[in-house]
Amino acid sequence: MKRAAAPSGRPRRVGELDVLRGFALFGVLVVNAQLMAGPYAALGGGPGASAADRVAAWLVTALVTAKFYVLFSFLFGYGFVLQERAARRAGAAFAPRHLRRATGLFVLGAGHAVLLYPGDVLTTYAVLALVLYGLRGLSVRSALRVAAVLLLGLSALLLGYGLLTVALTEPVTAQAYAPRVAERVAALRGDAGSVLGARLRELPSAIGTGLLYAPAMLAAFLAGLAAARSRLVERRGRDRVWLRRTARRWLPLGLTGGVVAACCSSGPLDSRWFLVGQAVTVLTAPALTVSYACGVLLLLRRYETRVPAAAGALAAAGRMALSHYLTQSLVLAWVFTGYGLNRYDRTGTVAVLAGCVVLYVLQLAAGARPAARTRYGPAELVLRTVTLGRRPGAPVRGPASTAARPAAAPREADGVRHAP
């Protein structure tokens, strides 16, 4: 089904939430690629890393790491409210839908973690989605307060542990770290069975990391819930003055925090300062995320009619974000492990970033055409089918089939329907 044009002959306005999700895909790709390319991401590069690779890793930590997952989590919380509204319009009970969606997301995430990438967030999202359901009755102000408490608490925990690490331990260099990861490197360069075994051994550590940072994800969920309750994007998404002012207000804090975190994680400070940098990241990454989101919406406002194909491709990627996210992991696993090219710990950060740009552009180009004909990517179709308990478009059975429905669902429902 082709996308209809507006009465004026111009393309229909793309959704702000779709564009933000499509934009976030690139940041998530960069972070995941760096982690999947080798074991030294937390140290700013391996023993043989070039100066260019070290600078690139430092910039990724300062400008990208944690910022785009915050945006994805925010959009997940925003989408939760819109899905609740959609269920109400359809005359369907939201709780069974939400439980089925969380279950489907968990199963997809578990397969993704075991086969491709143990740093998967979908399983964590699925569990936290149930917590979010329990907190759905919070007012806008209460949701923001709980989010602030979660961030402050996690940051304090990381800072305290980090300062103890600085005081009581010795730094670990890339040279000293190499023997510790030799077995992992060999396993990921082996055959498919060896790669699978390595992924399974990494799962406990990945689960522990997910639990540690779950409060930050839940805080972003709650911020998204509060924003959706107040219809923030609907009210401010096209307000250029507000967007520009908000971006400028939060940019200094976000950049400062990013620089401090990069100094702690990627030098010049040694490895003992890593958790201190993480504490700073938890507090300041949302500020840079806000600036990025407002900047992207400003660019959208400026170029939406001048370059409609680019805006449409970005929005299309956002509508199929889950499929693109899984595809990224599939490609990265093929490039870096024994599943394919076996480039694990053999590719510098600069080359990894260049590959990310190529892959992202290809995804935008490849996804634009299918998005003009269908509302769902493959993964979105599976998740949507599980959520509804039937294939989308199939006849509705039971009491919901007789519920009154509007002639055309508002556009807001489309922008969150496919969020991972």
Low-confidence runs of at least 5 consecutive residues: 1-12, 400-420
Enumerate how many helices there are, as a single number.
15
Which of globular, elongated, flat, extended, rod-shaped describes the shape?
Answer: globular
The proportion of residues forming helix, as a percent range, comes to over 70%
- Major β-sheet, in short? none
* Beta-strand residue percentage: under 5%
For the CA atoms, what is the radius of gyration? 22 Å
Average pLDDT, to the nearest integer?
Answer: 89
- The number of strands is 0
N-to-C SSE string, H for helix and E for strand: HHHHHHHHHHHHHHH
Tell me the distance between the termini.
23 Å
Judged by helices, strands and strand pairing, the structural class is: mainly alpha
Topology diagram in text:
Elements: H1 16-37, H2 51-63, H3 67-90, H4 94-115, H5 122-134, H6 140-168, H7 174-188, H8 192-229, H9 232-236, H10 240-266, H11 274-303, H12 308-319, H13 321-336, H14 349-373, H15 378-388
